[in-house]
Amino acid sequence: MNTRAVIRCGVALGALAIFVLFIVGCGGSGGTTTTSSNSSSPTPAEGEGQASGEGEAGEPTASTGESGEDLVEPSSEWPTDGGNLSNQRYSTTTEITPENVSGLNLEFEAPLDPPKVQGSGRWVNPVEVDGVVYAASSSNDPTIGAYDATTGKQLWQKTASELTIPNPTSHGDQGESVGDGLVFVEEPGGYLVAVDEKTGELVWKALINTEHRLEESEDTPVYYDGEIITGLSGSNVVGGGKGRIKAYDAKTGKLLWTFNQAPELGEPAAKTWGTPKSRPHELANPGVAVWAYAAIDTNLGIAYVPTAEPYPSCCSRQGGDDLYSSSLLALDLKTGKLKWYFQAVRDDRWDYDCSQPVVLWDHEVKGKMEHGVSFGCKSGYIYELNRENGEALTPIKYEPLANADNKALKKEAEEKYGFWLTGHKPMTEPIPVGAGEVTPHCADPKRLPKVAPDGKPFEMTCSFSYYGSKRFTAGFNFLGLNYERAAYDPNLGETYYCANVGITTAKITRPTVKQTVNTKTFPQLYAQGEDYGPHEERTGLISALDVSTGKRVWQDEYQEGDPCVEGVTATATGLLFGEDGNRIYAYESKTGKQLWSWESPGVLMGGPPILYEQGGTEYLAFTVTDNGYAKLDALSLKAKPPAPEEESASGAGGSHSAVEIFTANCGSCHTLAAAKTTGAVGPNLDELKPNHDLVKRQVESGGDKMPSFKGILRRSEIEKVAEYVAKEAGKE
Q: Within 13 Å, how many C-alpha atoms sit on residue 350's CB side?
């Protein structure tokens, strides 16, 4: 049966769009709802005008047979970033159990950069194949290397400059893929690189960024059946790259196909961005980034790729659905043609990127075996869809914005800021019905001051809110679900999520601000047009959802309210591993009971742990930033605990010093003599000599190429960094 549905929220045409920094959890209430578990439309037509390249072969072929028969099963190795092609992050290893997990100790550590080169292990994720761990780093000249999986001994290591990548930057290699005797990694500047898995020698490289425009980050390539699929993000600025999904021949680097998730003028989806007459000329070619890697159904021949917000997202962008932004795309593996899509955020004004890799699963739903895909975005909602046709497996309602009943605010927002659809129909967003919630979605008056900075009461509301210039609106959940990897336990039929909650407040102060500078990302987007008020302290939550209902089974809050920043990993013995940037935790998968945690002073966790077995020993491995240096750490049950004298100096417990926090998070980009860092990407702090408030504001909100560390560092850690830099900058 060839059931192919295109899921879409209707076309929205509006006036000026205003960008909001804070990433919201969808939470609508009140007003009229469009009640449908699935909406479909024949326009734009499936695959029409969107894929290009040598792999194009007309309309996608019909799917035959039952999906799920050939899902790549989990194993005792970890050959892909997601553990397997379904991104289930599930290990079949059985040595580490709930009863003995507390016996884990450090087995080895391996530097991920050349000697004396500072770097970061953040957002870089290792893989393990045939007794070799392949891992990358984030430094001024990022590396890719191979390490013995039992000892950490370096087998080879190559920097981006050694691979002839021009002008490497501190943006690191987020992850790698292995196949056909090669290791594939996307390097700064938009190059896909293939190196020999035994020697690290360059075999081929392909320029992905053929637009030669500013880009912001690298994607993780995914290998399957002689093909490499990868995404390219733009830079969220006028003049930045449009963002593309591309497939290459794994042996030669030849381009097979390209999918334009940000459509070119003349393609059907371009109509959903308005017309050239209704928006400034520079927005005629919009952009949509890809931050997350694909999941692959090998039987259906489909790659599932989530996409991010539309951009330029600041200020002058017109209203519209902006296809195919903030969506899940189901693409034919061989042609790149669109089979179906689901848009999770219509006309994304909130930066609700869908930047988390999706998870494929097979489980019974309402008495029928379903072949599903779980899909989450920064909104903090999880959508469960049939992966053959995109139909909702758990109900979805299209609801009006959370504060739609506030008629005065609604009128202002509609008329001045473009929160309206054609014919002044209310804007609606897809909300799972009583399911898919891994974070709270509404502001808690008890966690905010009684009055806003302007002396007026807050408008207390929920995610997906109107906002205007009359008063501060409280309802934006910052980073509900971002890059944090999810996991799936096939024995329990549960998916697991590492998410965050922390309501932020904002109001519009300059609705006519226009973005004009092409090369400065963050000042243009995150510091124009909004006035940011108080926010709740970021709190990390780990949750289990039953895929048969979408409902939450259990939820736990991280110790000390620390944020969740990386992801989770499940095992066949009923363990679930997660981390908050400072510690690794082990939970009982079935109940959510916390069983164990591990921390080392000066060490910040870089990515979610992987599990693999070699020589009868099971290893829990992960990347870290250790006092400013990127490393690969591995724990095992056979490793001896540290001696008492060693434990007092470097064992578990304690807190990070200001210089440790600065070096680990800021040293690769900034020069500060007191910390002995020489980064050149950001300003020289010894020359700038910023005061305490400026440092704190930049660390929290970001600026230029600097990302925001709110939700990554604890509040106390941000304060330490601000005090340290203000005191030490320029003294040496």
A: 34
